[in-house]
Write the structure tokens for this entry.
Amino acid sequence: MKKDELLAYIGNLSQIGSCRHYILSEGWGRGMRATDINTGGGLQYTVLPDRGLDISLASYKGMNLVYLTCNGETHPSYYEPEGIGWLRTFAGGLLTTCGLSHFGGPTTDEGEEFGLHGRYSTLPVKQYADLSGWVGDEYHTKVRGTVEEGFLFGKKIRMEREISSIHGQNVIRISDTITNFGSVVSPYMILYHMNFGFPLLSEDAEFVIDPSATEPRDANAVPGMNQFRNFIKPESGYKEQVFFHTMKGDQNNETMVTLKNKKLGASVSIKFNISQLPYLTEWKMMGNGEFVLGIEPCNVLGKSRKILREENALPMLLPGESTTNIIEISVQDLFF
């Protein structure tokens, strides 16, 4: 419908879609800002400004899409940076960003200690803005904010993130511009940790991916090399399997992967550009109560910063240099 036609039927845009801001008041999330976005087409998701503008809850026509850890949405003040302390405040959800100068296992690089997956997801945005409005006959929900990771005498990286959807379309567009705002060269590592769960993820689901190469992270993943597209029922004692995929793109260097569930009649697709994010880490965890598929586009293989430096494979940003990543997450009904 055209804008004027649509407005004739409603008294408030919240009838058909909305961008609703509030503050959590319970448990680990108490005091944290949140924004619920309803696309009006069945897709709803929650953005957390105090967690790097990451995305926690997501559902489609009332059906949950994501895996949530026992922590749930957790205030970043509880963050433990040492070792694997990151897991104590990891909520899972549709997007937990890892980086910006390190992701992967705990390591020490050039005398600096790094915990699991870096600090980004525990940093609040500043200059948070709701820029939703009409663009012609389309209503765009749009939020934007800036996150800075840095310290005195240390490296300094800024990310400007914009998350948007068009009314009636079940698509989330994430646009990130990362800049080295310091005066020295800085490592730059980023991984988009997207966590899918039941009921979209089940033994009836299939992961549609066409990589140019795949390698197991470790010995635990070797037995699953021929089964990384398929899933099983939750299993007691299951050991996580992680696979590193090198992606191939089309004529525009774009690639797409899809998690589909024919029995459920729904799928989620993730589109990105391999000139920005050439790799995808797959985290397959089929444990009881810990049943999750991590689909994780990234700019470098999931090795420690120290090892990447030794291999001369650690991405760097020069002072003042910027790069932009664009990811689109879309939800579709499956018809047969």
Observations:
- The first strand starts at residue 18 and ends at 23.
- The first helix runs from residue 3 to 7.
- The chain has one domain: 3-333.
